[in-house]
Write a structure and sequence with these properties.
alpha+beta, 5-stranded antiparallel beta sheet, two-stranded antiparallel ribbon, elongated, transcription regulation
Length: 255
C-alpha cells in the first residue's frame, strides 16, 4: 500500500513539469502502463489530475483549490509564536513579528524582553517604515517597480541622525537587504535602540513576514546584538520551513 501511495504521489511533481502521456508517466515511475493507468485514474477521480482531449494528463483543478485553501488557512503568527518565545528565552530581548498589508508594515506579534526597559511598539501598530529592520525586509522583497513606487511615495522623517533621508538612500539600502537576506536598524528610529531582523518565507520563496530582535544600548551594544544575527536567522528559517511546509527556508526572490 505504501508503495502504491508513493508512486501515485510521484506523478504529481512529474505533471507539474507539464502535461505527460501515459507512456512518459509509466517510464518515470518504472512501472507497466497498466499500473500507471490505474494510478492516474484514481488521481483523476479525486480531481488531482485531468485527462486532456489529446490523452495527456495534467494537474487537476482540485489540487490547486486544495493548495489555495491550505494557504488561506495558514496563520503565520500562530506558527511563528512558539519560535519567537523560544528566541526570547535564549536571548532575553524583545522579539517582533511583522507583515506588510495595504501599504503599511504592522506588528502582529511581540514577546517582551525580560528586563525592566519596555519598547513603545504594540501589536497592530504600524512600524516606522523607512527605518525598521522588519520593514526593510518586507519592502526589499517587492518587485523592483513596486519597490521604487513605494519608496518614492514615502515620507522620510528624521527620527535620529541615522534615519534614512530620501528615496534614493532607502532603495539602496533595500537592495543591500535583498542581497544579504537580513536587515538592521541601528539607532535609526530611536538613538538608544538597535534591532536585527530576518525574513520568513512562504512556499513560493517570497517574504511573508519578518521577525526581529531589539534591545536598548543600556542593555547590549549594537555589536553584541549583531552577534545574535545567526540565531535570529536560524529561527526565521525554522518558521519558514514550518510555514511553507518545505525542508528549506525558501528561495531568493527574483530581481
Amino acid at each position: 500500500m505504501s508503495q502504491t501511495v508513493d508512486r501515485a504521489l510521484s506523478i504529481l511533481p512529474l505533471l507539474a513539469e507539464g502535461p505527460a502521456d501515459l507512456g512518459r508517466v509509466a517510464d518515470r515511475l518504472g512501472v507497466h502502463k497498466s499500473t500507471a493507468l490505474r494510478l492516474l485514474r484514481t488521481l483523476h477521480e479525486h480531481g488531482l489530475v485531468y485527462r486532456q482531449p489529446d490523452q495527456r494528463y495534467r494537474l487537476g483543478a482540485r489540487l490547486f483549490a486544495l493548495a489555495q485553501e491550505a494557504v488561506e488557512n495558514l496563520d503565520v503568527r500562530d506558527i511563528a509564536h512558539p519560535h519567537l518565545v523560544a528566541l526570547n528565552e535564549q536571548c532575553g530581548h524583545t522579539v517582533h513579528l511583522a507583515v506588510y498589508e495595504e501599504n503599511e508594515v504592522l506588528y502582529i506579534d511581540k514577546v517582551e524582553s525580560r528586563y525592566p526597559v519596555r519598547m513603545y511598539s504594540r501589536i497592530g501598530k504600524p512600524v516606522a517604515i523607512t527605518v525598521a529592520a522588519v520593514a526593510k525586509l518586507l519592502l526589499a522583497d517587492l518587485p523592483e517597480v513596486e519597490r521604487r513606487t513605494v519608496a518614492e511615495k514615502l515620507d522620510y522623517p528624521r527620527y535620529t541622525s541615522r534615519s534614512t533621508t530620501d528615496a534614493a538612500a532607502f532603495l539602496a539600502e533595500l537592495a543591500t537587504v535583498r542581497e544579504q537576506g537580513w536587515a538592521t536598524d541601528l539607532g535609526g528610529h530611536e538613538e538608544s535602540i538597535n534591532c536585527v531582523g530576518a525574513p520568513i518565507r512562504g512556499a513560493d520563496g517570497r517574504v511573508a513576514a519578518a521577525m526581529s530582535v531589539s534591545a536598548p544600548n543600556v542593555v547590549v551594544s549594537a555589536e553584541e546584538l549583531l552577534g545574535l544575527l545567526p540565531l535570529v536567522r536560524r529561527t526565521a528559517d525554522a518558521v519558514s520551513r514550518e510555514y511553507s511546509g518545505t525542508t528549506s527556508p525558501g528561495h531568493k526572490p527574483a530581481p
